[in-house]
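Dear colleague,

Following up on Tuesday's group meeting, I ran the structure prediction for the three-component complex that the binding team flagged. I've pasted the input sequences exactly as they went in, so you can double-check that nothing got truncated or mislabelled along the way. The structure tokens for the whole assembly follow below. Feel free to forward this to whoever is handling the docking comparison.

Inputs:
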Amino acid sequence: MADLVADLPAGCEADAAAAAESSPSEQLLLVLDGFEGPLDMLLALGRDQKVDLTRISILELADQYLTFVAEARKVRLELAADYLVMAAWLAYLKSRLLLPEPQGEEPSGEDMAAALAFQLQRLEAMKGAAEKLFARPRLRIDVHPRGAPEDLDLRRKSVYEVTLFDLLRAYGRQRARKESGVLHIAPVRLYSMEEAVRRLSSLLGHMPDWAMLASFLPSGESGGLLTRSALAAHFAATLELAKAGRVELRQEGAFAPLYVRGRPGNSADSQDGDISEEAQSHD
Amino acid sequence: MIKEVTDAHEAEARIGKLRLLEALLFASAEPLDEETLAGRVGPEVGLLLEELRAHYAPRGVTLVRTGGGWAFRTAVDLAPELRREEEVSRKLSRAAIETLAIIAYHQPVTRGEIESIRGVATSKGTLDLLMEHGWIRPGKRRETPGRPLTWITTDHFLDHFGLETLRDLPSVDDLRAAGLLDSRPVLLGLGATADDSALGSDNEE
Amino acid sequence: MIKEVTDAHEAEARIGKLRLLEALLFASAEPLDEETLAGRVGPEVGLLLEELRAHYAPRGVTLVRTGGGWAFRTAVDLAPELRREEEVSRKLSRAAIETLAIIAYHQPVTRGEIESIRGVATSKGTLDLLMEHGWIRPGKRRETPGRPLTWITTDHFLDHFGLETLRDLPSVDDLRAAGLLDSRPVLLGLGATADDSALGSDNEE
């Protein structure tokens, strides 16, 4: 952890100092705030190897990155999907580098490592270029034009001053107005728990035996926010119904499919206590 | 430009001050008074200014004293050759820019269509102005009842905005991606709004 | 300042032209292109400009060439004495600075390519902001599937950073020789949320 904090990109020293006095999760948050995405973070880790980027150990880098992500997840930090995708890719790369190369059309582990090294060098080059560019004397900051120009309007290309930016912005605004004529807050359709309770209650009557919770989900929605909220709502609804003693739940293990069935007799004596106990009692 | 001085170091300092004076006077939007300038180059500012004035006297740009301050101005005798045109560059009205943008993106487009897109009536003057300026011209008539005239952009339009073809106009998606079109309030924490298709489809609910 | 000429009349005409050129360039805050200037002083404008540039080289105000134009600017070495702080509101984010550098060095470059180089999605408003500064503009569409829009820098970008041409970008030759100006995507799925091929499809709506 400590050395991760030390790898902050330039300009974040103050954050680092603050991080030293805060909890591990806060430290990680601060570190993450300093990065522009996973490639940027890899580059910062790579600089820590203190070798020329052309001779960097990609394997070592992958390990550092995976350690970082593991740490972050340990403190239950919400990591952006980008970082997880990179972690998965690096884990794969690692396995390709360590295991014998399979015969196939896939690029070799070496090629993949070289491609990553190239990306890091290219990003590093652009960061360097940006720095040099902005270190140049800049107009109206270091170097100045005539302060009191005498408007000669020599070019006479146009009487009107309109730039492409003006034109595009006008169209963009116009479109935006049109799209939100009557302030159309695009409705975020979320499945409510009440809705799910109603739905499950009516369905359970027709389902005498154990059935996967997933099979109760409304069909016709694929992926997306609505599906995910439906899943969450139905899950919460089963917990609520189980608490009320109206359904029973069963699950083989963590992350295994959740089974549900209507409680025979369906009486009103609600049972407190946690779901896993209840599930076990029926096994 | 520099008067004889015995000491080379002194001469150099003097040149440095003259250069700074030149730059300050050039970059300032307002004439600068001697007091302000003295604050930058020291009490000998009067002598230095006279030296600069003498240097620029025969040139196309001269140093003049105006009111309480000093400023560079183009030489008076060149005025006839620099005379600016009567018309001063003007800002195009917002309605005109919008109309032009709609014609560019939707051409060929009739006036009725422009009005329905903008949601307001288009004054005749707007189209006239854009046409007078050479940015738009009438296209073919639309083969619908009333055979309304359509409007299209000209080559001069492309030229003015530095476009090679109309196809180089950024698309609506490009505009959105560039941040030039942002209508939907951002819903924080619901990263999934990127899922436009799902949201868009139940808009009608 | 004036080269030896045998004919007094010729010399006078030459001085007149230099003075006019000086005045024209001085009057304008923006660079003027040679074509415009040639329209005022004739085809020998190139030689006259070089003569003016040489005359002003040691002074506090210098004549510089940038993009296709010429402009008077305060001397670079006086920057510390003339420095104006950048307005806080104009300070650019790291993302914007990097994006600008990538556009400058890789142009013409698509948004997807920028994202694959940075390994992260371009947030809304970054390109918008750079365009509002007048540093970038849309270039031609790339003739690949989806015909994605490309981005390029403007002459104002060169002027702002004191560059005569794009070849004067810092270290550009070294970077090119090292193969680092190759903008092809390398790792699939890295950040590049902007699938270029998906863009530009709804121009016709």
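Chain A touches chain B through 46 residues (CB under 8 Å).

Cheers,
M.
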